[in-house]
């Protein structure tokens, strides 16, 4: 009875990966016939400074976005599981950005962050080029990404927190643990499986960040040097898109996709090893 | 995506019908549906009327119009050609058709319609789309030249007459430049102080002009009217000293004189200036006939059209045409030839002019266009006089133009923002773009 789901897995997951692997050894502009070029695409991409720029930009996003959204998600979850009035309302509000299409949200945020007549600049009463200033573009986009992801992460931490048996918390409080000690000594360790899941999925999703970049900056602003033009928000996925669908160099795009895949696999195995060594408490 | 899913669903539904023997009558089967793709929704409604007339005469052919927005047009075209899901007929422009002609994806018009077919078509458009002595599309519309739409209320408030506007000239030499001083007097901050006044706070709430990174309406005409070049053959020649001068003038008008919206506003939003003009927040809006209907429908104020400013080398515009190309991979070549013949005929092409949407490229159909705008009290002469006055600067072209564009586009964005010196940046842009088209 596995056959039907295996078919889906093969057709929509394994097959495309194999095709991309094969394409990474070909030259193709979508018009001319596909011609094999051996490892030329790899040599080309791996010596291209703009690709390393994209890797660095992606890493910056991970470093900014992951800690902030995980911490905010955890704080929001702690507040929402306390049974305070209005919790249900805020639960719904937090999840809304995650329910909406990222591209549409990106366009709305572009209006909000627009230099002239943008909502944010009108509110603060000064003209700041949030998306065009080389120093501000990356943090601005990162803030939008965090904003869209926090609700989703909160949801998982809430589930994790509600799963912690009340008797453990009661025991801690009888032993004299205050709320801070309870959080760091009891709740955080018990949340480890949730944290692992949240980190793995959100790191992967930030590595694949594309929609918001496409809608907000298109990879810019740009730093122009004699060696190449570097986009300050030109993450790997956005570079892959440009190579494939703006300059129509499918071979180079495929190489970048393969490199991204390898990176993500290595990263995920690393996380697995790290969390695997830590104790996981069985709460059943 | 939804469209593809629908067509997929339609195929499934159709085959289910066939299998169960419930296929519709023979007459229905013989009807051929030909699909037609373009990027302009204003012109699309004119085409709908044209095809309604065509279908009356040709009941066996059904033409379906699909609009794909400009932002995605060239990406979708390429992927749909590769995926064999391309429409049977589609618009192409001068900058992008080369790659498709060279790879054999376009119907050869000379053999499909005969060499004589080109007789009645606008010569400049026929020439633009002839590659290796072969014509690759049926001319549809002709862009004529660039001119300046102006807001009468705003220029009057600044004491500028339409006659004075018609007489402006720009020059890299400030002593000979009458354009920038007028643009400054038309620029106001939020307190209404003009940019000519030392009390001007530096942030325009009303813009004098729409100088920006806009290749067709601004960059090329300014380069041309300074005697500069954009391309030599297919390769890019941005480092030409006259081209550099033109860029320096434009960049300083935006960032120093502040008579135009900032590049941060216009680089990633090509409609910014048009919207500002329509909202009554911009005095001079240099553009083409492609915005005439937008302006006529959208402007809630008195407006007029003046010639573009004269440069050191005179008034030099760019002129462009659009053709409809046939998909060589389609299996409906007979129907495609019939629709192409219709679109290249006086009657078929005339709907574009009758609705005022665009200048028909079939010359005998152009009178309808002039009649339409004359009836509205609008003189379109400035758009045509400029083309006749001096030879236009050639429109961007080349089999690999798209690749070159991707290389220089980010650099041009930074030049216009003022973060990159025009002279240095243009050399880098030229090198990067030429490397991209040769690679």
Automatic annotation (TrEMBL), chain B:
The keyword Signal applies. Pfam families: SBP_bac_1 (PF01547). Its main location: other. Keywords: Signal, Transport. GO terms for cellular component: cell envelope. InterPro entries: Bact_solute-bd_prot1, SBP. The keyword Ion transport does not apply. It comes from the Bacteria. It is found in: Cell envelope. Residues 1-23 form the signal peptide. Belongs to the bacterial solute-binding protein 1 family. This is Sugar ABC transporter substrate-binding protein. It comes from Mycetocola zhadangensis.
């Amino acid at each position: 009875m596995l056959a039907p789901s295996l078919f889906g897995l093969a057709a929509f997951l394994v097959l495309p990966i194999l095709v991309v692997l094969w394409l990474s050894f070909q030259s193709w502009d979508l018009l001319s016939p596909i011609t094999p070029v051996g490892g030329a695409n790899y040599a080309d991409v791996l010596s291209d400074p703009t690709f390393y720029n994209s890797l660095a930009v992606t890493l910056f996003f991970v470093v900014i976005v992951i800690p902030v959204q995980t911490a905010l998600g955890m704080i929001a979850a702690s507040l929402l599981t306390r049974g305070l009035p209005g919790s249900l309302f805020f639960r719904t509000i937090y999840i809304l950005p995650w329910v909406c299409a990222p591209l549409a949200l990106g366009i709305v945020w572009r209006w909000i962050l627009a230099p002239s007549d943008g909502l944010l600049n009108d509110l603060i009463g000064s003209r700041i080029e949030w998306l065009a200033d080389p120093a501000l573009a990356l943090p601005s986009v990162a803030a939008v990404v965090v904003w869209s992801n926090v609700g989703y992460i909160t949801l998982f931490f809430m589930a994790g927190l509600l799963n912690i048996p009340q008797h453990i918390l009661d025991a801690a409080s009888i032993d004299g643990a205050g709320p801070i000690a309870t959080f760091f000594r009891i709740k955080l360790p018990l949340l480890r499986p949730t944290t692992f899941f949240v980190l793995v999925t959100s790191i992967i999703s930030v590595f694949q960040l594309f929609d918001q970049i496409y809608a907000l900056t298109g990879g810019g602003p740009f730093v122009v040097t004699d060696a190449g033009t570097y986009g300050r928000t030109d993450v790997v996925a956005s570079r892959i898109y440009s190579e494939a669908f703006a300059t129509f160099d499918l071979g180079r795009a495929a190489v970048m996709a393969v490199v991204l895949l390898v990176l993500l696999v290595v990263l995920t195995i690393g996380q697995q090893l790290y969390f695997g060594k830590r104790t996981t408490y069985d709460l059943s | 995506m939804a469209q593809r899913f629908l067509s997929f669903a339609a195929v499934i539904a159709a085959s289910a019908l066939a299998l169960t023997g419930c296929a519709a009558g023979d007459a229905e089967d013989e009807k051929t549906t030909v699909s037609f793709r373009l990027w302009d929704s204003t012109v699309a409604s004119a085409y709908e009327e044209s095809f309604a007339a065509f279908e009356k005469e040709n009941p066996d052919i059904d033409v379906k119009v699909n609009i794909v927005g400009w932002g995605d047009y060239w990406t979708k075209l390429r992927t749909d050609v590769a995926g064999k899901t391309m429409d049977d007929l589609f618009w192409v422009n001068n900058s992008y058709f080369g790659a498709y002609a060279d790879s054999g994806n376009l119907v050869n018009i000379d053999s499909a319609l005969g060499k004589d077919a080109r007789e009645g078509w606008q010569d400049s458009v026929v020439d633009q789309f002839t590659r290796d002595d072969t014509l690759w599309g049926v001319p549809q519309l002709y862009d004529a030249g660039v001119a300046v739409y102006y807001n009468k209320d705003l220029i009057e408030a600044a004491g500028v007459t339409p006659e004075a506007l018609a007489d402006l000239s720009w020059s890299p030499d400030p002593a000979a430049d009458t354009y920038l001083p007028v643009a400054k007097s038309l620029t106001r901050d939020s307190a209404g102080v003009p940019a000519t006044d030392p009390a001007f706070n530096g942030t325009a709430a009303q813009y004098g002009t729409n100088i920006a990174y806009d290749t067709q309406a601004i960059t090329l005409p300014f380069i041309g009217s300074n005697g500069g070049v954009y391309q030599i053959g297919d390769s890019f020649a941005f480092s030409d000293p006259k081209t550099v001068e033109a860029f320096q003038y434009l960049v300083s008008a935006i960032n120093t004189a502040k008579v135009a919206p900032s590049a941060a506003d216009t680089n990633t939003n090509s409609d910014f200036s048009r919207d500002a003009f329509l909202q009554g927040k911009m005095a001079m809006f240099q553009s083409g006939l492609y915005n005439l209907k937008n302006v006529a429908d959208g402007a809630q104020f008195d407006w007029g059209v003046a010639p573009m400013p004269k440069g050191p080398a005179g008034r030099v515009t760019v002129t462009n045409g659009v053709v409809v190309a046939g998909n060589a991979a389609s299996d409906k070549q007979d129907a495609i030839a019939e629709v192409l013949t219709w679109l290249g005929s006086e009657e078929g092409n005339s709907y574009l002019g009758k609705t005022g949407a665009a200048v028909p490229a079939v010359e005998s159909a152009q009178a309808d266009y002039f009649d339409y705008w004359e009836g509205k009290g609008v003189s379109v002469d400035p758009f045509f006089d400029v083309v006749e006055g001096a030879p236009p600067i050639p429109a961007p072209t080349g089999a690999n133009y798209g690749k070159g564009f991707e290389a220089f586009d980010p650099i041009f964005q930074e030049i216009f923002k003022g973060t990159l010196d025009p002279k240095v940046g243009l050399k880098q842009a030229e090198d990067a773009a030429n490397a991209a088209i040769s690679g």
